[in-house]
Design goal:
Strand 1 and strand 2 form a beta hairpin. By secondary structure, this protein is an alpha+beta fold. It has 22 helices and eleven strands. Among the domains are: about 80 residues, DNA Methylphosphotriester Repair Domain, CATH 3.40.10.10; about 100 residues, Orthogonal Bundle (Arc Repressor Mutant, subunit A); about 80 residues, DNA-3-methyladenine glycosylase AlkA, N-terminal domain (TATA-Binding Protein). Helices cover about 45% and strands about 10% of the residues.
Length: about 475
Amino acid sequence: MRHNRIVPAQKKLTETTAQLNERVCERARLARDARFDGRFFIGVTSTGIYCRPICPAPSPKAENVRYYASAAAAADAGFRPCLRCRPEASPGTPAWLGASSTVSRALKLIGESALDDAGVDHLADRLGIGSRHLRRLFLRFLGATPVAVAQTRRVHFAKKLIDETSLPMTRIAMAAGFGSIRRFNATFQNLYGRTPSELRGTRARATDQAGRFVFRLGYRPPYDWDSLIGFLTARAIPGAEMVTPAEYRRTISLDGRAGMIAVRQARGNYLELQVHYPDPAALFRIVERVRRIFDLGADPAAIARRLAQDPRLKPALRAHPGLRVPGCWDGFEMAVRAILGQQVSVKGASTMAGRVAAAFGLKTEDGIVFPNAARLADADLSTIGLTRQRARSICELASAVKSGEVKFEGVSDPEDFERRITGIAGIGAWTAQYIAMRLGEPDAFPATDLYLKRACAESETWRPWRAYAAMYIWKGSVNGEV
């Protein structure tokens, strides 16, 4: 087996990961530091295996170690995944890669299956660059091409299904996006040296009832669960979301089918996700959306380093280490909720959102599925007490989403998104930026917000983490810290 030596781009993985270099990686590896989990991967030349920094196996000799910026880069170099630390269970590539917002947004699109039905050229077009430049950016920041990254993510998700569910292999192959069971088997034989069935035989697998699945989703510590769950509790939509200090539960809908998810903290640096959904083919998309809700791709150490440069944020950073930006399940639902929240209290907006759900949503055994754009485009919202202006804004938004003029999934150009959505009556820059924050854009910033304007008008120093700065300022404003 041939192994690549570290190249400079792998010694210095990214600018926003504290100038990671071989010496930093070595210290993190020897300490099994969970904060570095997913930020780099370790190839061991003596075994031909690649691992996470937290791998419990005895530490290999330094001369046998190679560092890689991504799992895909390690796989391309000829290493196979470790069966002990399970690279597929890592938090994944950090949400923001140095100065390359393009790579970050490309990863987001790949997570939304952008390469399943189209190639790299189409992905590059959506990002507004050439495909050759996109490949160069991926090689620079991740050490692997977009196709290799997408394939590795697909294999990792399939391995997760093998370990954590009792789905038959044919359903796993379909859920992970493999075109055929033959290709699925061949890929695993080539990568792991074993068939999928043999891999499942190496560990006790979970047993799931029909349509019910349980997953463990990793994150980089620290993780401020209490703040995030508190934020979601205050904004929960009655009937659609049920939130307690220990658990977030909500109804979901994909491809015209309804289901339910529930998330709670688990032992170690994990969240436990329970999914009740009839079609396993949607599991990858469901898991990716849940990762967005709970901001599991965040790199809290990198965020804190940048924001701590502003002394006004330091008290909030100390008080709430690992604060995340809460995401959302559905962009349209979030946009409606944001419109309802204009110039009213958080509680009042939640009450009105509950009325929308109860009047126009789909009732299921798990609760109410929030109505989609097609359902609200022609709805008479005045019947539930909405003002004429808010009803008009929501109906215009629903019509724009229904026609495809406004899209929430696959957003690759935040400026274009803001331009399109602010063309709708009643939606201004604050609402557009807030929606972008909840969709996972780490540098979104509702600059006209009262607290944000009062805290600091010079937000450029917080880039590319302005969404996190906003969360800290809002949190500090409530607690009297900022």
